[in-house]
Specification:
This protein is α+β, with helices and mostly antiparallel strands and 402 residues long. The chain has a domain of 210 residues: 3-Layer(aba) Sandwich (Beta-lactamase), CATH 3.40.710. It has twelve helices and 14 strands. Strands 2-1-13-12-11-10-9 form a seven-stranded antiparallel sheet, with helices on both faces. Strands 7-6-14 form a three-stranded mixed sheet, with no helix packed on it. The chain has a two-stranded antiparallel sheet with strand order 3-8. The N and C termini lie close together (5 Å). Belongs to the class-A beta-lactamase family.
Length: 402
């Protein structure tokens, strides 16, 4: 790698520190790391784990990483596929008992009675991992909320259990795109096939080999971790931060492969580094290629959601009008984002201000971690975008020139 100007190198630190620990901080804490194929290029943590600013935030502080969990689940699934335990396209309704009986919701009668039909189509792991199975998070779908109220269902997507995700499908498998708990049921496939919970499978096959000792679905069993737990903050209407909470609840019940993980930035840096460096001892190149390649026959449904109705949840870091596709857990941009990631890069995000990208073309990955709700918090997004651009300004030419 070529030499890097120290002034440029300092720009990342100045940007992060000013917004988190400056005179007028916009976030109570944040961590950022820029990663190259040879390892971490920059990493820092600023702010405090609590709103009272009494507990310093570090790269070893514990965060709820929300939907960044989905990256772990995709890797776990491809490990299982690589071992011949399952294929991406076989019918997992024959494996997971919870998926045996499913309805598709069509609408409602005038008196409010839901109109349902039985789903007879198969559901594949590929569909679960690409959000094309017909499942949808209930909090993002008014029809599912109406159905739940009608039948008196209390469990929801924030209950911390698989039963909280058992709602009718909103379309036939393969006939649409909706951000969903498909990842959680993909994790359930692994649990059944291996006769162990998802945490055990991930720990043995991903976390332990990478030295990730601070990642878990069950933080309440790890007092060594919870003593460094970050407080979730909520952005009030006036822009101030007030005490919030993890929507999923604490403790959770099941090992939810879509949203359930708690981890440290230091651990997540290790995973991104391994994937950027093609660590074949963790996942085969073919398996990683499969995760990061476009999977959708028709990306229009995905783009309508990510760049339209659910942009605040899913497409906050994409420029308006950007085109792209979806891989196995990751959004994939079709064209380069000016001054930022190259075309065919993958990105993930988590509800409370978690963002990660993986750019194999340039050889750069990045991780941004904070704990701010609600999703789409503008100061959080603005800071992440500024840091990503500064990463490419600092390291891009050097990495490309290897």
């Amino acid at each position: 790698m070529g030499s890097i100007d120290s002034t440029q190198l300092g720009s990342l630190d100045r940007i992060l520190k000013e917004k988190v620990a400056g005179k007028n901080p916009q976030l109570h804490n944040a961590c950022f790391a820029a990663i190259g194929k040879e390892g971490t290029l920059y990493s820092a943590a600023y702010g405090s784990r609590d709103l009272a600013q009494t507990q310093p935030n570090t790269l070893d502080s514990l965060f709820w990483i929300g939907s960044l969990t989905k990256l772990h689940t995709a890797v776990a699934v491809m490990i299982a596929v690589g071992r011949g335990l399952v294929t991406l396209d076989q019918n997992v309704r024959e494996i997971v008992p919870e998926l045996a009986e499913l309805d598709v919701i069509e609408g409602f009668e005038e008196d409010g009675t839901p109109r349902l039909r039985k789903c007879t189509a198969p559901i594949s792991l590929r569909q679960l991992l690409t959000h094309t199975s017909g499942f949808c998070y209930d909090m993002q779908q008014e029809k599912l909320q109406r159905w739940a109220a009608y039948v008196g269902k209390k469990d929801c997507g924030f209950s911390g259990s698989y039963s909280g995700y058992l709602y009718p499908l909103i379309f036939e498998p393969g006939e649409g795109w909706a951000y969903s708990p498909g990842m959680d049921f993909a994790g359930r496939v692994i649990e059944i096939l291996t006769n162990q919970d998802l945490e055990t499978f991930m720990r043995n096959n991903i976390w332990a080999p990478l030295g990730m000792n601070s990642t878990t679905f069950r933080p309440w069993t790890r007092p060594d971790l919870t003593e460094n737990l970050n407080q979730v903050a909520h952005r009030a209407v006036d822009g101030s931060l007030i005490k919030g909470r993890v929507p999923l609840g604490y403790p959770a019940i099941d090992c939810l492969g879509g949203v359930g993980l708690y981890s440290t930035p230091a651990d997540q840096i290790k995973l991104l580094s391994a994937l950027l460096g093609d660590r074949a001892d963790i996942i085969s190149k073919e398996g990683l290629d499969e995760i990061l390649r476009p999977q959708l026959a028709n990306p229009a449904h995905f783009l309508e959601v990510v760049c339209g109705s659910k942009r605040i949840w899913l497409g906050q870091t994409w420029p308006v009008g950007a085109q792209g596709d979806f891989g196995l857990s990751a959004s994939i941009n079709a064209e380069a984002f000016p001054g930022r990631r190259a075309a065919m890069s993958a990105n993930w995000s988590g509800m409370a201000g978690i963002h990660a990208w993986l750019d194999r073309t340039t050889g750069l990955a990045g991780l941004f971690v904070t704990q701010i709700l609600p999703p789409g918090d503008k100061p959080t997004i603005d800071l992440f975008l500024e840091l990503e651009a500064a990463t490419y300004q600092t390291y891009g030419p050097c990495v490309e020139g290897n």
